């Protein structure tokens, strides 16, 4: 055993002092402006804003019903489970690759029984027993091939972790948007029912006036169109509510409790509203999808090092220490020790372009990963810019839609009163009905867009992971 120490010590020292053929990694410059876009569509900063990436989703979503649905989804959503399984797969592959850095020590034992007629000893029977511990063909990684392959596997594992995190942030936003869509459809159903009732009363009045000869059949048919449209929208909204619930159940991975489902569009905000109005581009580097793209880039960089190392000699070591005897009882006695050390080296001379092709492939993969990384940054920048532009005009749009709805309500009430008094024809009332109906729908769509914009801005800025 003492005779093998110099060999093992030297091999370990060579491994630790090995070269690294991978290029020095430098993060690509961000292919986007340093700050968020400026202009009339973008909001001005007001007050203290939260940092979305540091704000837990439980703190951001203030409606307890929505928070419970999100919590259920994070526990039972099947897509998230698949992402977690992918992480475990990548972790296992990294462990397998990392094990190649170290020698694999094997123990073996054998027994040979033979009988030869030409034996020079007293009998032709010979029993040989052996036991050994050794290392077989351990690659001494002088040029970093194995270490770079291990580093690439490690970066792939890190990328899978970030992909899982990206799946979580997307799931949180998707669940919130599905919940809000159901709330809006419930509100749409309520509006349709209220207007169907009001339009039904107008239709009954018009029919009564027609029976007395005061109104024409044309006015009856015109009143019928508004009433039938409301009835049709009730059927459509009922279907949408059922489909929204089915979508929520799929995202949650189970049937969502009835008490956690929205009955109408909430009057107040379901999220925190103090999101930042401006964000430096460097903050995008905290987004999980961009972090995953950078880990893929690091893996490609390590693969270049492994491809370069293939041009240099491959040095391996096979060594064994054991005991050998002619009798089982003498196997571990003094004088039966045996050892062997077999270093070897191989250098590619003619491989007909195999190593050069592998290196070109690794470099091309790296270039592709650079483009993928830059595209991820650009996509993230656009998502944030689009969400900020939507937010910048949302307040003005909400005020205008609310004023429009209020004016349409007053107009409908006045026109109906004048129609009942015989001052105006029914055409004026019909026009007011349609205007009110469209105004109610538009205001609801704006309220939904405002709530969804807050969710999207939170996600685009890296929120939803904590």
UniProtKB/TrEMBL annotation:
InterPro entries linked: MdtP/NodT-like, OMP_efflux
PROSITE patterns for this protein: PROKAR_LIPOPROTEIN
Query: What residues form the membrane-spanning segments?
Result: none
Topology relative to the lipid bilayer, per the entry, is: Lipid-anchor
One GO molecular function term of this record is: efflux transmembrane transporter activity
* NCBIfam families hit by this protein: outer_NodT (TIGR01845)
Q: Which SUPFAM superfamilies match?
A: Outer membrane efflux proteins (OEP) (SSF56954)
Q: Which domain of life is it from?
A: Bacteria
Q: Which UniProt keywords apply?
A: Lipoprotein, Membrane, Palmitate, Transmembrane, Transmembrane beta strand
Q: Where in the cell is it found?
A: Cell membrane
Q: What is this protein called?
A: Efflux transporter outer membrane subunit
Q: What is its main location?
A: membrane
GO terms for cellular component: plasma membrane
* Family as reported in the entry's similarity comment: Belongs to the outer membrane factor (OMF) (TC 1.B.17) family.
């Amino acid at each position: 055993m003492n005779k093998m120490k110099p060999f093992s010590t030297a091999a370990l020292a060579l491994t630790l002092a090995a070269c690294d053929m991978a290029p020095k990694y430098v993060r690509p410059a961000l292919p986007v402006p340093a700050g968020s876009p400026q202009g009339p569509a973008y909001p001005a900063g007001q007050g203290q804003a939260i940092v979305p990436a540091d704000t837990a989703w439980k703190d951001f979503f203030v409606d307890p019903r929505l928070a419970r649905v999100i919590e259920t989804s994070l526990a039972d959503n099947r897509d998230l489970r698949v992402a977690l399984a992918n992480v475990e797969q990548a972790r296992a592959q990294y462990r397998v690759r990392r094990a190649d850095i170290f020698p694999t020590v094997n123990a073996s034992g054998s027994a040979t029984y033979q009988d030869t007629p030409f034996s020079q000893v007293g009998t032709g029977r010979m029993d040989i027993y052996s036991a050994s511990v050794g290392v077989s063909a351990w690659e001494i990684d002088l040029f970093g091939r194995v270490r770079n392959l291990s580093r690439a596997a490690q970066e792939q594992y890190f990328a899978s972790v970030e992909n899982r995190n990206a799946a979580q942030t997307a799931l949180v936003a998707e669940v919130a948007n599905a919940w809000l869509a159901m709330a809006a459809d419930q509100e749409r159903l309520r509006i349709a029912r209220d207007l169907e009732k009001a339009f039904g009363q107008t239709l009954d009045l018009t029919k009564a006036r027609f029976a007395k000869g005061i109104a024409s059949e044309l006015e009856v048919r015109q009143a019928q169109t508004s009433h039938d449209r409301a009835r049709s929208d009730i059927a459509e909204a009922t279907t949408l509510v059922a489909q929204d619930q089915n979508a929520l159940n799929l995202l949650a991975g189970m049937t969502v409790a009835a008490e956690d489902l929205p009955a109408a569009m909430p009057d107040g905000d379901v999220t925190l509203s103090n999101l930042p109005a401006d964000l430096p581009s460097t903050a995008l580097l905290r987004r999980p999808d961009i972090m995953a793209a950078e880990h893929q880039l690091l893996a490609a960089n390590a693969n270049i090092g492994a491809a370069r190392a293939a041009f240099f000699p491959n040095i391996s070591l096979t060594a064994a220490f054991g005991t050998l005897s002619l009798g089982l009882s003498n196997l571990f006695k003094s004088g039966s020790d045996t050892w062997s050390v077999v270093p070897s080296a191989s250098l590619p001379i003619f491989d007909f372009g195999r190593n050069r092709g592998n290196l070109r492939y690794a470099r091309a993969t790296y270039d592709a990963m650079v483009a993928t990384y830059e595209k991820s940054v650009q996509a993230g920048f656009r998502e944030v810019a689009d969400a900020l532009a939507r937010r910048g005009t949302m307040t003005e749009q909400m005020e205008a839609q609310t004023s429009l709805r209020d004016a349409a309500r007053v107009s409908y009430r006045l026109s109906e009163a004048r129609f009942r008094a015989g001052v105006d024809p029914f055409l004026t009332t019909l026009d007011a009905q349609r205007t009110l109906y469209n105004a109610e729908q538009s205001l609801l769509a704006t309220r939904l867009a405002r709530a969804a914009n807050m969710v999207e801005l939170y996600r685009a800025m890296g929120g939803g992971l904590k």
